[in-house]
Design a protein that fits this description.
It contains 7 helices and 9 strands; from the N terminus they run ααβαβαββββαβαβαβ. The chain is of the alpha/beta class and 212 residues long. It has one domain (5-87, 143-208): Vaccinia Virus protein VP39 (Rossmann fold). 41% of the residues are buried.
Length: 212
């Protein structure tokens, strides 16, 4: 029986709700030789779907507890590069704030950690310093197109996507899927709304901000 990345994606996203585009073709279009980026990889569930296609995958995860699981999961898998870094619109060393429940189970609650201290479910007093890379610069440094970029970085998506558009890098990305967090972080609503309007106005059909 052939393995279908779309079936895997539907199963994965179906556990937490129905994605806006559960038949997203970009995952099925990945092949050996393609490049994919999982920004906010957590413990690697989406990374695994990307990697099984044979594509080269760069998986960014700043949370040290999640990264330990991610790194172990893909140890020895040559097409997966696990990077213990955050992604931003600029390079910086800064604080990653843990979820308020992280002390009970740091891996389970690792997907709620954020670079934003005002995110309502983080503990602003519990954090770790992490390195953030400039994602636009990273993509430029690859020197090849990125077939698929998945982004779930707990509230800093807008700044990154704005820079990718500003610098003309969207033409080098086949498909960008992102989960935005304006519903849970009211401070992001205005900026996210402006980004959505810009994407529509510029006719960027390769960007989906309603992935999950």
């Amino acid at each position: 029986m052939n393995w279908n990345p779309l079936d895997a994606l539907k199963w994965l996203t179906g556990r937490s709700g129905t994605p806006q585009r559960p038949d997203l073709p970009a995952f099925a279009d990945l092949h050996p030789g393609d490049v994919a980026i999982d920004a906010g990889a957590n413990v690697g569930e989406v990374t695994a779907i990307m990697a099984k296609t044979g594509a080269t995958v760069y998986a960014f995860e700043p949370n040290p507890h999640a990264f330990k699981v991610l790194q172990k999961k893909f140890a020895g898998q040559s097409n997966v590069h696990c990077l213990n870094q955050a992604v931003l619109d600029h390079a910086e060393r800064l604080r990653l704030y843990f979820h308020q429940n992280a002390r009970w189970n740091p891996v389970k609650w690792s997907n709620g950690s954020s670079l934003l201290p005002f995110k309502k479910n983080v503990n602003a007093g519990s954090y770790v310093e992490v390195e953030a890379v400039d994602l636009a610069e990273f993509i430029r440094s690859l020197g090849v197109p990125v077939k698929l970029l998945k982004m779930d970085v707990e509230g800093v998506e807008c700044a990154i996507i704005e820079k990718l558009i500003d610098e003309g890098l969207m033409k080098n990305i086949g498909c960008l899927v992102a989960e935005t967090h304006e519903d849970g972080i009211p401070e992001l609503r205005e900026r996210t709304g402006k980004l959505r309007a810009r994407i529509k106005a510029e006719g960027l059909t390769n960007v989906n901000l309603d992935w999950i």
